[in-house]
Amino acid sequence: MNHDEAKTILLLYRHGTADADDPQIAEALALAKGDPELARWLKEHCARQEALRAKFRQITAPAGLKEQIISEQAAQEKIIFWRPRVLLAAAAVIVALVALAPLWFPHRANDDTFAIYRGRMVGVALRGYSMDLATNNPAQIRAFLAESSAPADFVLPAPLEKTATTGCAIESWQGAKVSMICFRTGKPLPPLQQSDLWLFVIDRAAVKNAPPAGARQFVRVNKLMTVTWTHGDKLYVLGMEGDEQTLRQYL
After folding, report:
1. Other CB atoms closer than 10 Å to residue 231's CB: what's the count?
2. pTM, rounded to two decimals
3. Boundary residue ending a domain (78, 110, 142)
4. Where a domain ends, among 93, 110, 127?
5. Are residues 48 and 171 both part of a single domain?
6. Structural domain boundaries enclosing 187
7. H helices of the chain, where?
8. Tens digit of pLDDT for each residue in 138-152?
9. Cβ contact 177:200 at 8 Å
10. CA distance 21 to 170
11. pLDDT at 42 exceeding the cut of 60
12. Are 163 and 243 members of one domain?
């Protein structure tokens, strides 16, 4: 795990909660202890969270709100008629969020959105997924993706074109569809695991700060070695367990 990967993971970290027990977060926290820049960023991140919590603690729930919620749930009403005092409480929450936005997202415009996107896709591959279409027919995969308005006109490197497919899934990223194509390299796999090589394709314009055309960027993210490149109007992320040399065999 490097500096950028740790920072991406720690964006989800909530100080003082059980988040620290998560293996990925624990590893990122350990890295922060030996990285002064990352440690300083983490301190500021936790301070912004605490400021937000403090603002919420100052908001007093209107009398009867708890009883109203319980009553509405018990009646299984589909339409909730908000009382004036509840509206005031909701407005107070919105005001607090707006007031804290500059503190909470001080550098949002400059975030390395690409690194976050890549980490999210690796998470999909590692945490488990269900394929929308299981097939070893590449033509069927492209047809299914095209019918679903997901990227289907992608260009594969010759070695990857010859690699057996097991199916595909459609993921999402900030409102844009991501085509996930699943491959099998031929090595023995654990029970129930169908794939060990994953390709994610998205429209290049949907992800900020992606590598420029013609450049291939190799980065280890969690358990996967990944390579990213752009071709035409598409952004590609290919990942597998192994090293860079092994991954290069599919490019």
Report:
1. 15
2. 0.58
3. 110
4. 110
5. no
6. 113-248
7. 3-10, 23-33, 36-57, 65-75, 84-104, 113-127, 138-147, 158-161, 244-248
8. 999 999 999 999 999
9. no
10. 31
11. yes
12. yes
